[in-house]
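Most newcomers find our protein records easier to grasp once they have seen one. To make this concrete, we reproduce a full record directly below:

…
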Amino acid sequence: MDINLKNDTDENRESGKKPQYTYKNNLITFLLILLFTVVSVSSYVPIKAIRIHSRNDTRAYIEGFHFANELGGLTRYLFNSEIRGEKRYRSDFDNIESIKYYLTNEQDIHITNMGYVDENVLEEQIKDSLFYVKAIFDENGNLTTQNTLGYRFNQNLFISIISYTENKMDFANLTMYYIMPQDFLDYQDVFTFNMKAIYILPSLLLLILTIGIISIFLLVVIAFCVPYSIQKRTLICTIYNKLFLEVKALLWASLIGISIAIILTLDRNSLAYYSSFTNIIYEANSYFFIIGIPITLTLYMLIYLSIVNLKYIYYTGFLNGFLKNSVFINIPLGVIHLFSKPIKELLSIDITKDPHKKIFGILLVNITILWLVLMGGPIMFIIAGIYSVFIFKYLTRFMLDLQKVYNGTSQLAEGDFNITLDEEGMLKPINENLNNIKEGFQLAVDKEIKSQKMKAELISNVSHDLKTPLTSIITYIDLLKKEPIESETQKEYIEILDKKSKRLNILIEDLFEASKASSGNIDINIENIDVIALFRQTIGELEEKIEESSLTFKWNLPENKVMCQLDGKRTYRIFDNVMNNIFKYAMENSRVYIDVIENEKEIEFVFKNISAYEMNFDAREITERFVRGDESRNTEGSGLGLSIAKSLVELQNGRIDINIDGDLFKVIIVIPKHVEQQI
């Protein structure tokens, strides 16, 4: 089963996910509706038993028109067939058991369905009866009657029917007894059938209708209470939702038609008491369940699916959920969709091309339509009106689009670039250009702002990094100029001067190297080299530094050669800069993972380490000039190592990627392999 409220539609539809249909959902839905059906149909039996145990219906039947009419008909049938010996004309009066009868003239006529009859038998039968009537004909054929109910029995009708004959003397001295036993309703003949059909069946049908209305109400409540998020994952509900409206109407019509056909078929053979519609309803026999449960199950299933369909319409909208699910609506929509595109193409003018041909074509179409209107009758005037409305809407939309372009250009002229124009219609090229101008100008502004910011940071960082060693040099030179100092102190000062001057020299060299690399003004000597051997050489030269550090290196290098078209000196500088970056900024006593991965067309060098400093910057910023992982700038780095490495990699048709994940810092250098090796 299933239900929820709006916006499920279309969660799955908006997210692009298909609902997961499960066997469990379908089985539970079917079994619960089947159980509900069985309970609903079965509840009729105990309620009906209480209803038909009353004698009021029998009394009403005896006092009514139909009983007196049938009793009179039985009398004439017995007289004609048993006394006169004429051909039988009412087969439904054969084997009557619900009415005990005895016809006699105390001489040669003794007609009965009670076997042996005498006064004691008659007296006993009358004593235990619900009703009896005695009809006596005198020697002149005049009739007098006696009955249990007196005037409430329609004896006038009874007398008129049995007296309708050419010679009433045929009935002279005849006495007739008709007795209705206590178990009248237990028999199956024309009397009981008429009584059930006319006096009991309407109330039983009303009972069935009442049970049905209550059951349907409960089913509707249940269908609305079950979440739609479950219902949409039930395959049978989804299939029903997708059916055309006409198919759904056909299902309902089929159910109604089949039900009516079954009722008519049963009633057509009304004397087959074991299978007639009346007795099926009255007795609630096996046919009641064999026929009732499938029809009721189908009805309840269609009701349940219709409730789910209402929620489907609510979620997907009236247009998509209802109108577009109709064949008669889809056909005109399809025709409109089929012709809308050619009409739009006909009326659109590409302003980037010569419009004369298109305008001439439009004029020809309009002249043709005007000519048809003049030549046609009233219908063509209606078509002309529709066409005029279309042209009006087209020109209105064009003017509105033109107004939007004007407003957009006005905003651009005032320096406001926050505009977005629809890139459709006749003015599509202009709108595209204006949108591109907006985006291009915004990119240029952003790039200029970033450039100005980088220049300011570059000046600041260069000033700071050059000033620090230069200040130390000046300070210690001043100290050496003063009074004579001890040789040990002098030696210490000279060492500091030497260290700071070398540091200053490295900064200046890195600055020039970065400037030349970023501008491309650098000599690149490309040759076919084994990049793995070059990387191992770099590691060998850094071996002493690796051993002195507290870092643990984990290597994963291929044993085979990998040939690439590279500048050996520049590539060595790339590896050296990346490794020195690790020495400066990796957390002490942590592990460093270096993996070399060979692919079909390229080779990747992956360096991973845990940073000793918080990396609260964008990964792209770290390759900018004078950007350090240590923002306090307390380390010996220049901030140019990765920037230089990036420029050198790109000059050799490679690329370098920086990834930051928490404290994990990862550098990936991708170098293309030699073409022959790729092959």
